[in-house]
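Subject: Sanity check before I submit

Could someone independently write out the structure tokens for this chain? I want to compare against mine line by line before I put it in a report. The sequence has 210 residues.
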Amino acid sequence: MLKVLVADDHPIVRQGLRLLLSATREFELVGEAASGAEAIMLAASLVPDVVILDLIMPGMDAVPAIHGLLQAAPRARILILTSFTDEDSLLAALQAGAAGCIIKDSNPDELLGAISAVARGESALHPLVARRLLQRLQHPAPPPQGPLDALTGRERAVLRCVGQGLTNQQIANELHISIRTVHTHIRSLLDKLHLEHRTQLALFAHGQQI
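---
Independent answer below. Compare away.
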């Protein structure tokens, strides 16, 4: 029989998994944990084949829990159990070493099939999870913008000159623009960078690679 460790902070979920696993001849429930830390401690002594791990538990997120479980029981396969599909958290858990993910409202056959699959060394993703992760990978979130991303090329040039300590006239000469245009760019820079005066602008420019 395959040894299974269940880690979930909800007693009713643990009870349901206990009843489900006890009705099979393939799996033996060897331990229950209410936190990631408790799961790691039990895994070290029980050496389970599969750990069913809740994605969100108090005290320890799934990623450090997975790292700890794989150190405590390197041969264990981890199946994430979750009631929602937070793509970022799921991706992080899979990248940390989880072998699959099943949602809590799956039917018993789906859950038992997922446990068997990960125990055989296969991956197991609920269709809803697989679809959401595929959408997440196909349409990644745009990278966060830095403070310089909103600036035009000319504004960057003016900012670089300000950082070099040039006066408005020197900036105008350097960039071959009028002093009035320099004033306009500096006002725009102050607005876009949420600064109040030229000294702050110069200090900001010193801290950037423009």
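---
OP: Matches mine. For the report I'm noting this point. The chain has a mean pLDDT of 89.
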